[in-house]
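Saturday, quiet lab. Running sequence design on the structure tokens for the scaffold JK sent over.
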């Protein structure tokens, strides 16, 4: 991880960022989720037409808080695979942070 403060706990870093969850409505797309996994996500948070998480603009509706300050995922334990695969400091993380003007 190369951005300032990246030496800390990964979950704490994500809770102070959230850029990946507010990057694009196409990013939280379902891929390998089972029907059982999808059934644990509240229907109001699913965009069934496009096979992804529902978003308001570029921001996933499951994201609470202010990007770059303090955020939390409302379905963290049941979040889609694409969300699990984005890790602090990886290429996707840094791209999202850059888009929000956060240090990379």
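Result came back. Writing it out in full:
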């Amino acid at each position: 991880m190369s951005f300032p403060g990246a030496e800390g706990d990964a979950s704490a870093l994500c809770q102070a960022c959230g850029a990946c969850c507010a990057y694009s409505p196409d990013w939280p797309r379902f891929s390998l989720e089972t029907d059982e996994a999808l059934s644990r996500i509240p229907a109001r948070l699913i965009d069934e037409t496009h096979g992804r998480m529902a978003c308001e603009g570029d921001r996933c509706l499951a994201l609470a808080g202010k990007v770059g300050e303090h955020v939390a995922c409302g379905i963290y334990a049941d979040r889609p695979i694409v969300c699990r695969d984005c890790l602090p400091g990886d290429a996707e993380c840094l791209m999202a942070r850059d888009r929000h003007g956060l240090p990379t």
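Notes for JK: The chain has one domain: 10-95. The mean pLDDT is 90. Ask whether to fix the surface positions before the next round.
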